[in-house]
Design a protein that fits this description.
alpha/beta, two-stranded antiparallel sheet, Rossmann fold, eight-stranded mixed beta sheet
């Protein structure tokens, strides 16, 4: 099982349809489904290593959220919001006929998972939140805002990987081979060079968030968190600038009372490539 199958589903936004691509690993007839959803400017191939690990146990589905990877781009950039992504994932779950599933969500993918978990009649059985919670530190948003949507063009994959590493130190130590494997799906060939494989317009609603909007969003997310009643594993990079340690502790004490695991030497966010990180996820998902 070295390569996934690339498929897609049509989703509705406003008065138009857009195509959401997804990568599928394992037996397509397996009723045990794991959905893995990436961070803000990433794409579904981030989970290749984890999917290879779990493909004997699950049908693993790794979508490219709209505007990223092989998915379409929205005509209206203000549609790049969590409610849109949650609606898209509901359509995806119907397409893959997932009556019950587990979810691994990194950063933005975790917020989408929270949205799915909070729906009445949600099919989620277990939830893994990777370095994200109801409260997000403003310094992390400021850091992300310095590069998100900025024009970029590189002459080679190696040059692109080196440039992306400069803004990805929080991912923690990786070998050059691991980092290049994570970087290649982030690129699209453009003439004699490479550009990022995401719509720069995803930065438009990101930059439109005001302190008042952020505060209202945080209050709504805590209310949602307190309503959940499913097993949750919360992963945190010990040096994360996005998920504060105090927030993570609060998430273990209220709502579903998450099980917390922190990784030393990692910030935002663990890539789930390293064996120790994958083992923690495996143990949680596969335990009785």
């Amino acid at each position: 099982m070295s390569e996934p199958r690339l498929r897609d589903v049509q989703c509705l936004h406003g008065h138009s349809l857009h195509r959401v691509a997804y990568w599928e690993w394992g037996d397509p007839a397996n009723r045990r489904v794991l959905v893995c959803v990436h961070g803000l400017s990433r794409q579904g191939r981030d989970f290749d290593t984890l999917a290879r690990d779990l493909g004997d146990h699950y049908r693993v589905v790794c979508p490219d959220i709209v505007g990223r990877g092989r998915s379409d781009r929205l005509a209206d950039p203000m549609g790049y919001t969590i409610p849109t992504y949650v609606a898209d994932m509901v359509t995806l779950l119907a397409r893959i006929d997932a009556e019950q599933l587990d979810w691994v969500g990194t950063s933005m993918g975790g917020l989408i998972g929270l949205g799915i978990a909070g729906l009445k009649g949600s099919p989620l059985r277990r939830l893994v939140l990777n370095d994200v919670g109801p409260a997000i530190r403003p310094e992390a948003l400021a850091r992300i805002g310095t590069y998100l949507g900025q024009p970029a063009r590189w002459k080679s994959e190696e040059e692109a990987a080196a440039a992306m590493w400069l803004i990805s130190q929080g991912f923690g130590p990786h070998t050059p081979e691991q980092w290049l494997e994570l970087s290649r799906p982030q690129l699209i060939a453009d003439g004699d060079g490479f550009v990022p494989r995401y719509d720069p317009a995803i930065a438009v609603p990101f930059r439109a968030v005001t302190p008042a909007i952020a505060a209202a969003g945080e209050a709504a997310l805590w209310q949602l968190w307190d309503s959940l009643r499913l097993p949750v594993l919360l992963l945190r990079g010990a040096q994360s600038d996005l998920l504060a340690h105090d927030t993570a502790l609060a998430m273990t004490q209220r709502g579903p009372k998450a099980r917390l695991h922190e990784f030393a030497g990692v910030g935002h966010a663990p890539t789930l490539v390293q064996p120790d990180q994958r083992q923690v996820v495996r143990d949680f998902l596969l335990s009785p």
